Amino acid sequence: MELYQKQLLLEHLSAHVTEKRLEKMTRILAWRTRHLTLVMEDIYQSQNASAVLRSC
What's the pTM value of the predicted model, to 2 decimals? Predict the structure, then answer.
C-alpha cells in the first residue's frame, strides 16, 4: 500500500474509531513489511497450496 493510500485510509477511519485505536493502527502500519517468506513441504494436493497462498 502506498504512503498516500495509507494516509487516505487513516483519515477516513479516524472519523470512526477512538484515538487509542487510531494510534494502534498507525503504529502497526509503520512496522509492516512488504516481504513474506512462505515455506511448504510435502504438498500432495495443489488445492492445499493454493489455500495457503490465499491465506497469506
Answer: 0.42
